[in-house]
């Protein structure tokens, strides 16, 4: 039962955090960031939020710093929007899986082009 509840909460956090990032956060350090995944512990005490950032290393670092500094605000907003008595502690984790996926697709397309020219 609690595993289902944790999964449901993860979906809600992902939706609401997306809205918060898009409309409410005004920190200039936060660039184009997307939430790739949210994992909530079974006891609903902790939530890991996986963030992918579009841009170079400097932009990625600045965005992660901006999110860390806004953690308290984000947590309080999540509490208001989801209406929970206890909001889990949140931590942000940089996720480069989209970047790695793009590299793999680029390599596959390159191989395909080279194979078609023979």
From TrEMBL:
<dbReference type="InterPro" id="IPR020053">
    <property type="entry name" value="Ribosome-bd_factorA_CS"/>
</dbReference>
<comment type="function">
    <text>One of several proteins that assist in the late maturation steps of the functional core of the 30S ribosomal subunit. Associates with free 30S ribosomal subunits (but not with 30S subunits that are part of 70S ribosomes or polysomes). Required for efficient processing of 16S rRNA. May interact with the 5'-terminal helix region of 16S rRNA.</text>
</comment>
<dbReference type="InterPro" id="IPR015946">
    <property type="entry name" value="KH_dom-like_a/b"/>
</dbReference>
<dbReference type="InterPro" id="IPR000238">
    <property type="entry name" value="RbfA"/>
</dbReference>
<keyword id="KW-0963">Cytoplasm</keyword>
<dbReference type="GO" id="GO:0043024">
    <property type="term" value="F:ribosomal small subunit binding"/>
</dbReference>
<protein>
    <recommendedName>
        <fullName>Ribosome-binding factor A</fullName>
    </recommendedName>
</protein>
<dbReference type="GO" id="GO:0030490">
    <property type="term" value="P:maturation of SSU-rRNA"/>
</dbReference>
<dbReference type="InterPro" id="IPR023799">
    <property type="entry name" value="RbfA_dom_sf"/>
</dbReference>
<comment type="subunit">
    <text>Monomer. Binds 30S ribosomal subunits, but not 50S ribosomal subunits or 70S ribosomes.</text>
</comment>
<keyword id="KW-0690">Ribosome biogenesis</keyword>
<comment type="similarity">
    <text>Belongs to the RbfA family.</text>
</comment>
<dbReference type="Pfam" id="PF02033">
    <property type="entry name" value="RBFA"/>
</dbReference>
<dbReference type="GO" id="GO:0005829">
    <property type="term" value="C:cytosol"/>
</dbReference>
């Amino acid at each position: 039962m609690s595993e289902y509840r944790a999964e449901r909460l993860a979906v809600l956090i992902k939706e609401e955090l997306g809205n918060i990032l898009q409309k409410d956060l005004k920190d200039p350090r936060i660039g184009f960031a997307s939430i790739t995944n949210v994992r909530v512990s079974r006891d609903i005490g902790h939530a890991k939020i996986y963030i992918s950032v579009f841009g170079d290393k400097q932009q990625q670092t600045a965005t992660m710093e901006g999110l860390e500094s806004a953690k308290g605000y984000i947590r309080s907003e999540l509490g208001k929007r989801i209406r929970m008595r206890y909001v889990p502690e949140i931590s942000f984790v940089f996720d480069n899986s989209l970047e790695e996926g793009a590299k793999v697709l680029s390599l596959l397309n390159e191989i395909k082009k080279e194979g078609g020219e023979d």
